Amino acid sequence: MTAAAKLKKEENMNKRWERTEWFREARFGMFIHWGLYAIPARGEWVRSFEKLSNQDYEPYFTEFNPDRYDPRAWAKAAKAAGQQYAVLTTKHHDGFCLFDSEFTDYKAPNTPAQRDLIKEYVEAFREEGLKLGFYYSLIDWYHDDYPAYGDRIHPMRDNEAYKDRSIQFERYVDYMHAQVKELLTNYGQIDVMWFDFSYDDMTGEKWRATELVNLIRSLQPDIIIDNRLGGHIKAAEPEVYAGDFYSPEQIVPPGGIVDENGLNVPWEACITLNDNWGYHAKDQAYKSPKQVVRALVECISKNGNMLLNVGPDARGEIPTQSLQILTAVGEWMQRNGQSIYGCGASELPKPEWGRYTQNGNMLYAHVFDRGIGPIYFQGLKGKIKKARLLADGSELKVSLPWMAEQYSDTDSGAFIHLIGAELSDDMDTVIALELVSEVINVESRS
Question: What residues does the Glycoside hydrolase family 29 N-terminal domain cover (predicted)?
């Protein structure tokens, strides 16, 4: 590699790190899957799973009228939950657009809703001071020029009537690029462009991905883009379309995400509250607030974010169960958000009682398991300047119990005694430790 090429590569990596600064500070966002599929209420993949044709799906278009749609209520719920940004589906795989696109009639203004629903979302979340993201599906089961027969996931993949249908895929790609341009031109500053998703040979330059990213950067230089256009974000030299952040789905990676150079890659686990992204009336398999908080902490402890999904119903309301969970998480965040925002991993090994997050010389011990006796902090003897219970700021003493003096590992460890047999917060009791130095923080490029 020439010196000029190395310099360009380093410049691109630095720009990605700069663009994602707010993202790595925010750590917690709201994902919103909403569209026509809220009416059948069997999940956002209902068209594919049930092999519904455009005609089969048409009744949902003709009756879509979310009379209780109030994006300000959504935004207030997100903010109260401690979420710092949101990403809403502008178009999902079914091809239906919540925005007023000039390139299709298959859009919200042509339903009984009779308006641009994305415009209202943008205004509402902006009023609450939250960052804004647009989800846009690369896949389109409505468009005549998107491959159908023989495709792995298209609703008409087995329909012989589509076998010899002539399509012009480039015409679809032109359409897709034009809609992305609309989204990034008509609504002011947008912070996240969340594409979904590449698969099989439908990836990378099949979408004319380099051209698309160059278009996006020309319109919104500071926007961050996920990695689902394709490419290899973890490569030593990722493609221009490889994205700014990695997007694991329904899983928290066993370790943090690093590239082939050993450098941290920004990432965000997208997680559902129940078992579906879109509204499913029969799905009651909701995660508890404790599960959500602990999964969020796990993400942060590995230098990642969490994008937590809600699926509003056909009338436009977030389900009551989802709101109850968000409220409980928000109450925990009000007391303990300092251990989430701007925090990342620590070099300390994962403790047996929970996890660590860290921001500079502030180390946060997330205690999940009370155990018996004092809490042991391996490797921190003489390194704790001050210890406080984060929820209320109450002082905690660092001391060596008399019964522990005989153990050799006390030469490097510290102990804190918590009063009582149970944790003060069963979801996650957080101890804030001010350290003498910040040398063990690892939320950095190297």
Answer: 10-338
